[in-house]
Protein 1
Amino acid sequence: MPQPPESLAPETAPLAVPAAVRPPSLRRRLAALLDWMLPDSLLGRLSVVMIFGVLVTQVAGGLIWAVQLRSKSEAETRTAAQHLAHSAASAIRYFMTLPPNYRPLMIQQLREMGGTRFFINANSSAVPVKSIGDSHLANLAIDVAAQTLREDLPFLPEARLAFAWPDGLPVASDGLTVNDLPDNWVQHILLTKPNSAPVLVIQMQVESGRWIYLAALMPNPYFLDSDNPLWLDRLVLQGLSLAAILLLTILVVRWTTRPLAALADAAEAFGKGETVPSLPETGSREYVKTARAFSGMRERIKRYLEDRERLFVSISHDLRTPITRLKLRTELMDDDAMRTDFHDDLDELDMMVKGALQSVKDSDIHENRTEVRLDALVLRMIRDARLAGHEIAFTPSGINVMAKPLALKRAIGNLFDNALYYGQKVEISIRPSAGAGGDLVEIEIRDHGPGVPEDAMGTLFQPYVRLEHGRAQNSGGMGLGLGISRNIVQAHGGELLLRNHPEGGLIATIILPAR
């Protein structure tokens, strides 16, 4: 059988990689890194972003300014070094025109007249001068001055140039220093206030055994500092600008987020069934729109809850009368077995109506929060249970919580009653805990009963759901207690967890905020 053309042959489909084993994308990794680095609050995040932005801007501006400053300083240093070298070459040529014997006399006359731009001396050899050290601008000035001297005095040997500090500067081959000279002789090359300025020393051999020594300040004596971008006044200015931007950012963000905090508090209070004050409709357009939407949602939910309660009350009231009439009519039946069956069905129907109404009432207990002593609340339950012969283990903890007393008692009581029904022994413990949202309190109730199958654990909070052993041991229950307890705990901002103990029995854990 001929094979299909290669172009028509089916291609092998690429294997699909499950989403669970795919590596996280770069965007997700960056988002996770930012979440880890940035604070949790909006104020902290905006402050960090603003500070980072200002710092990046200042660093970039500082680098640009430093490059421009360095280029400008190099151009000024090059020009000043050329000008100073031209003057030094002119002075050397002048002294070379004089007879060697007259040079010391001319130097002496110049000193007595107040000196010139240069301090000049005639020596028999080169004077060792200690350099100021490695400096970019100093090396540039020396290179430019040396090149200029070579161009102006090509007939003389290479000049020796160096920058030195004026204190203790040697000026003669016999060891004479600047400190040994009269002030009027060196007044043009000494600059010690506010800081010492470096002196450019030029030594050139004009004849065998005859050296001309010249020392002078640069036109800008402090030229070495001219390319330093870290000036104190600039650092202070950048620090003040950063502080001002940070302060304004904090003020603006706090002003912006204060209504959001009020909205969050109102939503939390409304979720817990507390009285919620009206939100002010002032601020940004987005906040006003959100506040109006929240107020409308709150009113709709409130009306729904009120309508639900009235509906259940009406249903309970309306069903009670026909149920009673049906019970009376069953009494007229001659068949005893059928009359008993009718009575059982009507009793079950009556219990279901009462249970549904009780579920609504227990989940919506209207009371204010107050400080509840958990030990006293639990001990009152335990006292009655012990009188009935139940074995209960409990150690007081001394922990208090802010809660609705009757609602919390109903939530704990439902769990406590379930533990008494299904277990021969009950253990209760109260302990502090720590969570991501702050300090927590855990109330743990364990029974020693058969426990719950793992596949049925997720259905326990559904209304009217009862397991087989529950119906056998407590035929009068309706399967509403766990749902009521969870609703009350969630209204307090907490959580109700159920799990099996490894050694048998069920553990119900109520987690509440400490405050």
Protein 2
Amino acid sequence: MKYLLTLAAAIAMPPAAIAAKPGVDAFFDAMAISVAPGQQSRYVVGDNLAGYFEGYTQSHDRGAGYTIKNASVFEGYATLVNGVANERAQSSEQVLPYGHRVRHAGGALEEMALLSKQHALAIRLANPADAMLTVQTLFKDPGAISRDGDVVLIAPAGASGLFTAIAADQPFVVDAALTLRSAHAVRSMTVVVAFGDSAAQASGRAQALAKADPIGAERKALYEALTKSYLSTSDADYNKALNWAKAASRMFVVEEFGTGIWAGLPWFRDNWGRDTFIALPGTLLVSGQFDDARAVLANFARYQNLRQPRDKDYGRIPNRVSASDKTIYNTVDGTPWMLREAFEYIQYSGDKAFARQMYELALPYFDGAIANYADQDGLLAHDAADTWMDARIDNRAPWSERGPRAVEIQALWHTALKTGAWLATQAGDHAKARQWNALAGKAQRSFLKLYWDGRIMADRLRGDASRDTRVRPNQLMLVSIPFADFVPPRVQARVTRNAVSELLYPYGIASLSQNDPYFHPRHENPDFHHKDAAYHQGSIWGWNAGFTVTALNKFGYQDLAWKLSRNLGQQILGLGTLGNMSELLDALPGDDGTLKPSGTWAQSWSVAEYARNGYQDYVGFRPRLLDNTLAFVPAIPAAWSQFYAALPFGADERIEVDFQRVGKQQQWQLRLHGGAQRKVAFSILNDDKSRSQLAFDLAPGQAATLVTGGGKATVNGKPLALRAQQASYAADIGELVFQTPKRYRAGDFPMLESKDVLKGIVERRQYR
């Protein structure tokens, strides 16, 4: 099938030598996504405050331009050399994680960067020889224009309420169309467009930036952020996609409502509780941005529902924090996800002092959850549309009934209770620790009996306690919880087999089996249904690939996971918004094999999970600083002959890894930087897909060479004891391959037999 050839074909190339971090120029040159003349593709960069720039390659003004909050403040720009326009549609263009650059036929080079945390952008035009250089700034509806010395000022107009200032690093003349031309022939001119709440603020910002090297400074700062953690494998395409996923996820970190993470662009520019904490590890933990991670957690805690008198949502964090709507709390999993990521943050950073703040959040949360939602089995009940599958018909009945007890909610509930018990122990509240641990044990005992029949895992329990066995990916979240196993490993293995065999395509995992009568093959299909009917009834959600890779790698199926990651990487680099991932894909490709992105055109948790997989699931780095351990649970694809990684943790500490595959052996060279002596623990995958444990101590500045293979291990040439950790479940799982998508023929799918079939089922209360 064509989509397999288009997305899955690897570029044949010999393994490249793996080096430590490249320099700034080499790093961005490797990341640049080149676009042929005439190709218009969307790209987007963020300012990490409350704005983003949406542009299109080969176009001066297509796209929203620079949007701050909900107002477009800058449309785009054009350039001229000696009065002759540079035709971008005929030029070679490269998209970069801070903006773009265009090389024109005459040798002129233009580059635009949105400047992080500056409310400003910079445009640089360079020419091989001295020339009159012109930058034409484009505004849809500028306010009153004036000039104050070296600065052009534009009064607020429209909804933004912001003043605009334009400055340059060369003397210039400007006309009424806001076209800036160098006052004399030069080889380079940089123009800064800055915004502020007052004319003085905007003017000062523009002049200060113009006097410096704003684009160079932005490149350096972004380079430092993106390479604080670093992974370079023998697959150059994967490296490029991984770095783009890190850059894209970083773009969503904003300050609009306090430090937070936007869910998606263009219409999810809010801080959603569930989305924020699903995205947090891939956005801020694997990248070593621990201060930001703490700030996100602390900021969300400010919005916890502590209203009196107590309501049914007491103790929850919001479903959504928004400037335009009231804060709402209709999410059952937002607070469990937050507690899970608070614990993971503490494990990465060693910040035990933060545990007290999270304990203060846990107390009212568990009070409310136990009083309002815990049932007689110790499980967590919830409303029908309060999980991540939350779409409703006209804000009423759910399109995808998940109540009252969804499978992944119970795994999250168990994790939240275990996290809460640990937090209580740290605070000296041993009574609460015992209570919450006891409830976690009760939930665990009840769960297996109610959800698992020895063959199939239920996606939810209905109100009458019957099991809904529709095949959805949610069951895979049973495999990826951070504490000890919620369900036995053999059950996890069979769950992995069942879900992957039925749902996993080469390009992503479906939200519902294509063999289910409720399956919708396309998201937007207005001849047959509203798009929300298909939202969780077959559509491919990018973030679901994250826990799928985690599950596959746990049981030694990393080569299938790797094929999926390679294909997702091709999507990041060439499908839809360049350098980013959409919210969704249609479940089935088009007749020509092409994939269709849908939903938001840039989605935070999609790229965040791609980044997380690289560090946590392939390299397998999962620090446990609470017991002074740097844990590795690697699952190295056979295609990786070597890799280099720099892995941050703690307070400016890191461990460097240089991996080589030598025959059937794996050689790990490890060096610890900063801090104190640490225990290094490995969970090694054996040839039969079982796992064995080993551990050794490593001091700062010390190097160790670990060699594993053939059931043996040595450190610096000395034999090391291996202990059995996880049995092989290859016999339970068997061979796993991608599902073959059906062809799209409307008559083959019950939901397309007539208009609004699913809506009728829901409204007649016949949804099962």
Protein 3
Amino acid sequence: MVRLGFIIGFIALLGALLSGLAAYRVHDQELALDRIALARAIDVHASLVQDRSTERELLARVASGLFRAPSVLKPNMLEPLRSAIYAFKTDFVVAGWVARLRPGELAAAQNAIAAAGFPKPQIRDYNDKPIDSASLTQPIDVLMDLEPRSDETKTLPGRSYDDEPVRSAMLTRARVEKRSVASDPIPLLRGNGPIGVIVAAPVIPEGATEPAGFITFSYELASLMLTNDDLSLFSVALKDPRKENSELVANDQGVVSTRMTTPDGPAPSATRTISFGGRDWQLGYYAKTNSARRAEQTAIIVAAIGFAITAMVCGLFGYVAYNNLRLSREIQVRIGFERRLTAVIDELNHRVKNILAVIQSIVTRTLRHGSDIDVARELLIGRIHAMSNVVSLLSESQWQGVKLKGLFEARAIPHADRIAVSGPDIAVSARAAQSLSLLFFELASHSDEGLSLVGKHPHITANWTVTGEEPETVFHFRWEEFNTSEATRRPDSDFGLILLDRVAPEALGGNAKRYFTDVSYVYELTAPMETVVDMTERDRTDKISAPVRPTKSP
């Protein structure tokens, strides 16, 4: 045995060393592969975003270059470009023609906007307040035409962008630098609209030095730069140029929101910079999975497989010892099973004797000398049926108690459909269930002897409550039959009176009382909750029904 143990130990040590070495190598390889895959995916995404941004900036340049001799006051300047811009790219939100109007051109521009069919032709500031041309000393930038024309966009022409900080700064820079310029992130169409970016390209007529206006295209930020794929290895965030410690992120529905960054918060796995509209934009990439943790999990799996193989090899050498141990445990289980079977038989004998004693008492009391044989037969069948039903319920629960409401749902209770039951759904013990089942049958069987004085069947309510605090909680039961009186209700039998007044209260360790009110018959039962539940009986049943466990070998 010593030599066999030495061999098994040596094999186990060698297998553990080899498994650890394999896990270490797999960890390093998985970590390197994940980092390479993440870096390549980020490079591809950044390249695609740059290409997409360049295409949309090129669209603005091409659109502005198609203007030959733009008429500032013409509100349909985009008419010749519609087919071209839709054929080139169609994912813009709004394309617009912004004209630079001198103070003397405001009236003519207003008439031209009205003639084009726009509902609000008046020249106004960005807050829709009319602009007085007499107060102007220099040209202003006014939206004269847009595409597409919808109920939401038709009201925009006639607005001046000079008093809107983001758009005004964008147009001013485009006019000074004479190239396409992108704005800061801004809500589009309305104050609570989708976050987007506007790119403006100046339209400079031949021979002129100043632009006559601007072609603008607005794009939703999510579709332009922040499209996140559920299957991608990372999520994308855009550094907010308006705030130092802020970034813009888009959810799966394309809704862009702002979140603050902190020095102790998660840092992006990588950053990339793209150019769009004459400025640089910084993209942050956050890995969705923890590469180090994933590599550790893979290494753990490899190590587990190695240890399992080692255990299997060691198990072959220990087969003889294992076989002897298995035989010993089988013998112990058989002995324990026989002991448990004996205990179950003893407990079954005890319960059967109790049930037979109760049935004997029921038969003796029901078939007493001088009783009507037909009435006695019906009562005897009903009482035995009630006992049979509660025994079935207890067998289903392995004699661990019965839900109190289940006793009323049983077919053994007469007129159960007219009984309004309420109370906590407590589980009563086997002994309490037998007494309460007979009690409910006895009360219900005397509740429908013909009709009451008012010509109605009695309406019955049964409710119970549990009051007090552990371990002195008290069980209160109340049975009340409305539309009945002492004159209309069938008198209780001798056995019923004994059961109501003495047997049931004594079985539960409580007391009971019954009486008539002006409109009803009332039966009340009060007992300690510890006798209703009977934890001693439940503990004994749990012990018997517990699975057999082998004892430890000496």
